[in-house]
Request: fold
Amino acid sequence: MTCPRESEILDALMTARWPEACEDELRAHAQSCALCADLVLVATAITNDVPEAHVPTSGVAWWRMQRRDREEAARAASRTITIVQASSILAAIAVVLTILGGVSAMSESWRNGIAHGLQLLNSLPQWGLPLLLTLALVLAAAPVALYFAVRD
Amino acid sequence: MRISVDAIMGGALTEVGDRAGAEARTIVLMDEETFRAFYDRTARSVWAYLARMTNDRQLADDLLQETYYKFYRAGAHYENETHRRNALFCIATNLARDASRRRRHVELVPLPEHDEFTADDHTASRAANRTDLARAMERLNPRQREMLWLAYAQGASHEEIAQILGVKAASIKQLLFRARRKLAALLRRSHA
Reply:
């Protein structure tokens, strides 16, 4: 599966000594050995295929990296803020729902109280209702009358 | 399959954040001078690798920046230059694989060189050879392409290829042999 001269040929290929700067004997071996012939064919094709690189300078690369670093940091910070805001909104919704639940339970008891009061009114004698209305009117008017009486 | 860069680092990370017994790791980022020197030594070969693996110059430009950013953010300390270089190529390999998966089908056509607009006989024959290689490479699986490129364009050793591609070092010889035999047969067929 491997030829003992493979590394020798590969070294010549990688250091651009192949084929001119190599011994005739090594070249003859590469032609006669199937493994080395494969190696020469593949390695030559690949090394000739290396595309010409036009890369940014190291200064530009460093600057872009620093800018990206700052952007990532800002994004991470805004993510934290978003999470805190979302948590606050959820907590507020939970509080509102709890309060509404409590109010609803309270209003249930109020409704029951009112219904009970109406029942009592129905059970009052004939003169009871005008008496109650008069009493309510006095209770409502009394503070107003008191205010005017003691004013200045 | 994604390759773990941590595995490549092999415990070579600088552990300086060990506070009160906690296994906290403080990231030590590379300083500008070291980064720029390393970039100058490696950027062209990383770009060539990315360009060949993705077969897209524009994408290779983007992935090059991404590769160095991820490498920089890893904030690791490496035993030596080879170790550091292998980690860089490992990141590049993962990014190229991800990009290829996103594009689903990568049609391998030869990358046009800037000087091919003024094609003489030599450049025309070189372009034809590159077309043959590109078509032959298309018939290989991504790992075979990566392996052959690392071995014959980058001159990476079997151990280095194993580290970069996340393959057992013992199986590299066999895998590389198969890939090479397959590519050689395809090239001969296209030349015939």
Remarks:
- Residues 5-191 of chain B form a domain with the Butyryl-CoA Dehydrogenase, subunit A; domain 3 fold (CATH 1.20.140.160).
- The mean pLDDT of chain B is 80.
- Chain B has eight helices and no strands.
- The first helix of chain B runs from residue 5 to 9.
